[in-house]
Amino acid sequence: PRLRDEFHEQAVSLASTAETQLGLAPENVHCLTEKPDREPGTIDARSTMENLTATFEALTARVRPGDRVFIVLIGHGSFRSGEARFNLPGPDLTASEIGMYLASVGDRPLTLILASSSAGGFVEAVSAPNRVIMAATRSGQGNEPRFAGPLVDALAGDGADTDKDGRVSMLEAFNYTRIEVERSYSTGNQLRTEHALLDDDGDGVGTEEPPVEGGDGAVAAGRFLSPAPPLPALAGSDPILAGLYEEREEIRERVNALQSQRASMETEAYQARLEELLVELALKNREIRAREAGGGP
């Protein structure tokens, strides 16, 4: 009962944060829990396989090019018969089944957060290009995970925003959560049995401390749950300036995508392409500054 209550509160808190603090439209936030009657009007349905499948199918029908998809699984996990499972009321969700669900979303930016025990057993099965995978544990075994609590705190507050840009990236959220989990074990003078992993380069192998450069972390650094911050007031009255800001954001996304591919590219080719993009970004920044100095149209 204690864990059921904790999982419920964490899920509802995350859904509420997504709407009230991160600016997501209510119709784009779906929350399923074991006891939906606790929050009438807030929780979509009970977290059964049938309802989860229906939610995925509805999501697949709605997702459009450019949309970002975030899936967070909070609860118990297990590992048996060579496969990781996320425990649901009734039949469990296996790693291969969630892999099929994710495939239906296509190659759109997707983030999957597995805040459950045995989460590490999912990583290889769900890893793919343009996906950020966080797992509370590094293997298919594990005890009660502590990952979900600090993860919700990371997304709800500003403590994880290390670069102070007003948004928390998935890399910042992961690192904040990992450090807080480590601290909780250290404070309690306990042997740490939980080692979180992040995989975002599509190789199916997670990293505990992502280096960003040359491996896991590059895609997560440019992935945000919250929408892009609003454009400066001047851009609202100047469509040309607004367009320049959007073009700059698109260039930044291409830089992040390139960085995520560094491990699979020849060094010379990678550096040449990165230099091209950085020059393009610098020129775009110069255009923006010139337009801002001119005061608009």
- Number of beta strands: 9
What helical percentage do the residues reach? 40-55%
Choose one word for the global shape.
Answer: globular
Q: State which percent range the strand residues make up.
A: 5-15%
Given as residue ranges, the uncertain stretches (5+ residues, pLDDT < 50) are: none
Average of the residue pLDDT scores: 87
Element-level helix/strand string? HEEHEEEEHEHEHHEHHHH
Compute the CA-based radius of gyration.
Answer: 20 Å
Structural class per helix/strand content? alpha/beta
Distance between the termini: 62 Å
User: Helical stretch count?
Assistant: 10
Largest sheet descriptor: 4 strands, mixed
Name the strands of the widest sheet in spatial order: 3-7-8-9
Give a structural overview.
It is built from 10 helices and 9 strands. With 297 residues, it is of the alpha/beta class. The strands form 3 sheets. Strands 3-7-8-9 form a 4-stranded mixed sheet, with helices on one face. Strands 4-5-6 form a 3-stranded antiparallel sheet. α5 crosses α6 (170-187). The mean pLDDT is 87.
Short note summarizing the structure:
The protein is an alpha/beta fold and 297 residues long. It has helices spanning 2-20, 49-62, 95-103, 123-126, 148-156, 170-187, 218-221, 233-236, 239-260, 267-294, and strands at residues 32-33, 45-46, 69-75, 77-80, 83-86, 93-94, 110-116, 131-135, 197-199.
Which descriptors apply to this entry?
single chain; about 300 residues; alpha/beta; four-stranded mixed β-sheet; three-stranded antiparallel β-sheet; about 10% strand
Blueprint of the fold:
Layout: H1 2-20, E1 32-33, E2 45-46, H2 49-62, E3 69-75, E4 77-80, E5 83-86, E6 93-94, H3 95-103, E7 110-116, H4 123-126, E8 131-135, H5 148-156, H6 170-187, E9 197-199, H7 218-221, H8 233-236, H9 239-260, H10 267-294
Parallel strand pairs: 1-2, 3-7, 7-8
Antiparallel strand pairs: 4-5, 5-6, 8-9
Helix pairs in contact: 1-5, 5-6, 9-10
